[in-house]
């Protein structure tokens, strides 16, 4: 039995097409017809966030999560980008000092 590349190619393309359209269709369905309850609750989250800046509370219909950040918390992305930031010749003194 000889290998027929054209049949294999058409079958594979059909499988990928069915999978892609199924994925896109399900994403469109859930975006248009299903509402996310977390979007409505974000307004409450902002009100509670203003009271204490280091505490964030996330609520949904099934859970509630409270995240407390340290006072001097610096995100890892900021720390990483600081490595590539050009430095001035005058590095003596504190970083908070104005020049």
UniProtKB/TrEMBL annotation:
The lineage's top-level taxon is: Eukaryota
InterPro entries named in the record: SMIM26
Listed A to Z, the keywords are:
Membrane, Transmembrane, Transmembrane helix
Transmembrane helix: is it a keyword of this entry? yes
Entry's transmembrane regions = 13-33
Q: PROSITE patterns annotated for this entry?
A: PROKAR_LIPOPROTEIN (PS51257)
PANTHER family found in the cross-reference section:
SMALL INTEGRAL MEMBRANE PROTEIN 26
User: What is this protein called in UniProt?
Assistant: Small integral membrane protein 26
Question: What is the organism field in this record?
Answer: Hemibagrus wyckioides
